[in-house]
Amino acid sequence: MADMILVQPYTGTWDEMSIRHPEGLLAVAAVPVSKGYDVRLIDQRVTSTFEADLDEAVGPETKLIGLTAITGQQIKYALKVTQQVKARYPDIPVCWGGVHATLVPEQTASHPLVDFVVVGDGDLVFCELYEHLRDGSSLEDLRGIVYKEKDGAVHSNVGKVELKTVTDDGSYMVLRKNGSADVIRDLDSLPELPYQLLEMDSYNVFFTEDGRKSATMNTSRGCPFRCKFCSDPVLNEGKWRGFSAERVLEKVDYLYHEHGIRMIYFQDDYFPGSKRRFIEVLEGLKKYKRDIGWCTLGIRADTLTKLSDEQWDLLYASGCHSLEIGIESGNERVIKLVNKAETLDEMRQSNLKLAEYDIKVKYTMIVGFPGETEDEIMDTVKFAMELERDNPNCYSLVFPFMPIVGTPFYFDALDMGFKNPETLEEWESMDFDMWTKKYRGWASPELTRKLEAINFTSYFHNKNVGYKFGGSVLLRTCFRLYHPIAKWRFKTQNFNFFIEDHLKDGLLYIKYLARSLVNRKMMGFDYFQKSLNASEV
Predict the structure, then answer these.
(1) Cα–Cα distance measured from residue 300 to residue 193, given in angstroms and rounded to the nearest whole number
(2) Among 145, 194, 196, 392, which residue's Cβ finds the most Cβ atoms within 10 Å?
(3) What DSSP assignment string belongs to 172-217?
């Protein structure tokens, strides 16, 4: 029986795209596993017997059950897990961690079903919380947690995160006052991830035509930049921390030899770190002679412009398959407004250089920032088309802006009329695709609908997006059918009379209705209204 149990809830329609390894929970499990504790990790996305798995894991020694959730759809499923746990084992405390709990800790901890919240890095704190509960120790001085007192009052040891403007152009610092939470600096000091807790072959991280086995990997945490819309500076208190190049390559070699992994998705917010570290990692990956490929979630255009011709060749020789680059806007004023700290010309320069290599490039952009005009929004669509014209290997996805708690633009959004969700349940609709349908924004209804049209059609307008749908027959079919229409909309910038997202909702409903009938479990229509989350494409 387990000393502690970690649960990865469903993520919602994201699971249609891919199922990535639960690295966050693996990191939380690593310390107690290294200490010899019995830890079980149950991933709802890859098991059809969740309650039976839970019953098998729980025993008299089980003192804590933890789970993670990001803001949006996953909160619905995390709450369902919590309800199931409390119905079967009401005396076992439940602890929430992850992105949403870190951003909104007190509100999360105040929910009747939640006993504890871990804020920030949970690698050390979660295990210490377990030991305190096991030994009956006081929690008053345990950093990084929020919890309920016996009288139900919420007690916080984490203080408050505050933003401090440090330059006239809006750059800012992130400060935590009257409390503390872990932001671990020396990642090399952490134990290896306990992959033995997973069925590794149950995950489909990245589709490739040659059927390579793939895995995720985090080589760092945080980002050194301060974009005003991004949660990263708030979550990581403005700090970037990375494993050494040597440790990264050891992790790669382990996955390559022990699990047959031939494609790695580095899901760091900013993968390179220092240029020296970046080059050392590329040199190490080059030794595999492209037998192992890689892609990354986080890299910047200005970082690439600083590479020499020889280093560009090294980038390709290291096995680089695809890169994801945040462009954010095609308008210089907005680029400065969001504190992007790079220029459109740097983006153009890196795009032209990337066009010389067989490397797929995903550009991500955002429209609808507070204070952004409709003309500036259309500048972003035009810039997306420019980049795609100059680089036949790239594609652009355009997301509607969403206010994230604690960021500078979040406070701007509040000033412009945004109403903050007041309960944990209400945060379920706060994702890129749903929030404008549930909450008042600052754009007119007509402009809001245009933003939704730009977002939806961006998924389908470029044939290069197609490989991302490779793991789903339904999505591949939808892509082939809708691509000509989406391509026409983007080319002509005609987003009027947009009804396609409603057709998509109906199609997903039919699919899941059929699945639920097979399983003899009817699911509410509310689930099927959820859209594909753009960050997964």
Answers:
(1) 28
(2) 145
(3) EEEEEESS--B--S-GGGSPPP-GGGS-GGG-B----TT---EEEE
Q: Cα separation of 187 and 183, whole Å? A: 10
- Spatial distance between the Cα atoms of 264 and 293, rounded to a whole number of angstroms: 6
Q: Please give the model's pTM, rounded to 2 decimal places.
A: 0.91
Question: CA angle, 530 as apex, 447 and 464 as ends, to 5°?
Answer: 75
Residue type, 96: W
Q: Tell me how far apart the alpha carbons of residues 247 and 159 are, in angstroms, rounded to a whole number.
A: 33
What are the tens digits of pLDDT across the range 40-66? Answer: 999 999 999 999 999 999 999 999 999
Q: Which of 55, 406, 374, 475 is nearest to 231 (CA)?
A: 406
Give the residue from 110, 154, 116 showing the smallest Cα distance to 132. Answer: 116
pLDDT at 474: 74
pLDDT tens readout for residues 93-149: 999 999 999 999 999 999 999 999 999 999 999 999 999 999 999 999 999 999 999
Q: What is the DSSP letter of 45?
A: G
CB 45 within 8 A of CB 17: no
- By C-alpha distance, which of 27, 51, 49 is closest to 39? 27
- pLDDT the model gives residue 473: 75
63 SS3 class: coil
Angstrom distance (rounded) from CA 417 to CA 441: 7
| Gap between the terminal Cα atoms of the chain | 39
Q: How far apart are alpha carbons 290 and 246 in whole angstroms?
A: 19
* Residue entry with tokens 């076992």: 92
**Domains detected in the chain:** 4-177 (3.40.50.280), 370-537 (no CATH)
- Of the pLDDT bands very low, low, confident and very high (cuts 50, 70, 90), residue 441 is confident
Q: How confident is the model at residue 296 (pLDDT cuts 50, 70, 90)?
A: very high
Check if the beta carbon of residue 58 is closer than 8 Å to that of residue 5: yes
Please state, as a whole number, how many other Cβ atoms lie within 10 Å of the Cβ of residue 63: 18
- 259: pLDDT strictly greater than 50: yes
Distance CA 148, CA 154 (A): 4
DSSP codes joined into one string, 206-267: ---TT---EEEE--EE--S---TT-SHHHHTTT--EE--HHHHHHHHHHHHHHH---EEEE-
Composition of the chain by helix, strand, coil, percent to 5: 45, 15, 40
Count CB neighbours of 48 within 10 A: 8
d(CA 451, CA 243): 39
Q: Above 50 in pLDDT, residue 465?
A: yes
- Rounded to the nearest integer, the mean pLDDT of the chain is 90
272 burial type by CB count under 10 A (0-12 exposed, 13-18 middle, 19+ buried) = buried
pLDDT mean over 174-190 = 91
